[in-house]
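Dear U.,

Please find below the material for section 3 of the report. The protein was modelled together with adenosine-5'-triphosphate; I have listed the sequence and SMILES used, followed by the predicted complex structure.
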Amino acid sequence: MSAPLLEIRHVSRFFGGLAANSDVSFSVEQGAILGLIGPNGAGKTTLFNCITGFYPPSRGEVVFKGRVINGLPPDKVCHLGMARTWQKVRPLAKLSVLDNVMVGALARTNRLAVARERAMEQLEVVKLAHKARFKAGGLPIGERKKLEVARVLATGPELVLLDEVMGGLNPAESEEIILLILELKRRGLTQMVIEHDMKAIMRISDRVVVLNSGEKLAEGLPREVVENREVVAAYLGDAP
Ligand SMILES: Nc1ncnc2c1ncn2[C@@H]1O[C@H](COP(=O)(O)OP(=O)(O)OP(=O)(O)O)[C@@H](O)[C@H]1O
């Protein structure tokens, strides 16, 4: 079997006395979708921040394509082929949809015509090309989320980390995002997905990692994880 694309080795992240991540280890195989779940405050976004260089881990190693990337700033991590979306989507509101995606594409080229072409391609992928000339600030939430994904794809990543891309969407909009994630997988992209919607996680994930109070509580196939008693207890509170 080939080496995993991403390895998290004993990663901890402290904020003062709080361990937002505590000795977390797992890996993500090339081409797979890994679902990252856990109750509010479990440490999911902190782990994304540690992986993508926004907060360096306090301990442990993040290994991407066989290289330890701890301490690299986010732009260098992006250049190596990893990009993430944010839970709170904040497009450059006054710029057009196309210009927003071009900002992502400019991570790989300084030629505007090339960036524009790549940005348009990604707008086609997320089915937002018809809004290319619209101001980003005027998009409804469902389209803002797609714009965020297009911007990330335009950076030319091998691994994308999606932080609650279905948060705040209605069922029809969520379904579009699920189909998009599955299409990106079909194209060979590796993905890590934070999501609270368990049905969506069950449908898209090859494997699931569960965090609770900063620690890895469980890992396995989606079915194994939802049937795990400790996982159920963490979500529902201890059964009597
Ligand atoms: N910059 C920070 N400074 C201090 N504490 C932080 C910081 N970032 C996160 N935390 C704390 O770390 C813990 C984990 O937060 P995190 O946002 O990673 O959880 P989460 O699983 O993503 O939660 P949610 O599902 O609500 O988004 C929380 O107790 C949070 O308050």
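For the text of the report, you could mention the following: The two ends are 44 Å apart (CA to CA).

Regards,
Y.
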